[in-house]
Write a structure and sequence with these properties.
Membrane-bound Lytic Murein Transglycosylase D, Chain A, 3 domains, 7 helices, two-stranded antiparallel ribbon, mainly alpha
Length: 182
């Protein structure tokens, strides 16, 4: 057996094959090691981040630095467990346009009572009324948000109007056109 093994290593090709085999084993081992190491670090950092967020959420007023993907709604959900408090954050920071926050911007999170929406009461009358469709003629200066506020008292219902009217592009409406209000 030793004699056969010794004979197989007498050619230079066998040494190259042995070296390449060892290199493959080392690379696969390092990749596996780094994968599991990264998994452990991610799990640890996630739990530390949740702990920090819980501490931040309990101490108000606070300062918050905006990161990519943040909106006032998502920030309000972190601190108040209710996105409806985005208005409090907007007012505390004197923001004229709540859609314009930038990465790295520092916001003051005021001490405010979380806004919760009471569960709605559905009656047969309100169901029948919501099934009725009414026409609405677009006036100069109208947009779907202002129409929803005017007709329903809730600007977020603009999506219902866009769907009921089968609008291809809800950002493009023209004076004099007729929309269908659900």
């Amino acid at each position: 057996m030793w004699k056969t093994l010794k004979e197989s290593f007498e050619t230079p090709d066998s040494y190259v094959s042995l070296a390449l085999g060892l290199a493959v084993v080392l690379v696969v081992g390092m990749i596996t090691f780094n994968y599991f190491k990264a998994k452990m670090e991610t799990a640890t950092s996630t739990s530390e981040q949740k702990t920090e967020e819980a501490k931040e959420a309990t101490t108000l007023p606070a300062k918050y630095t905006v990161v990519g993907g943040d909106t006032l709604w998502s920030i309000a959900e972190k601190y108040y467990k209710s996105g409806y408090n985005w208005v409090d954050i907007q007012k505390a920071n004197g923001l004229t346009d709540p859609n314009l926050i930038e990465n790295g911007q520092t916001l003051t999170i005021p001490d405010a009572k979380p806004i919760t929406m009471p569960p709605g009461v559905v009656s047969s009358a309100s169901t029948v009324k919501s099934l009725e469709k009414k026409p609405y003629t677009i006036l100069q200066g109208d947009n779907l948000w202002s129409i929803a506020v005017k007709m329903y008292g809730d600007g977020y219902r603009w999506t219902d109007i866009a769907q009921a009217s089968s609008l291809a592009d809800p950002d493009v409406i023209y004076t004099g056109n007729v929309l269908t209000l659900p």
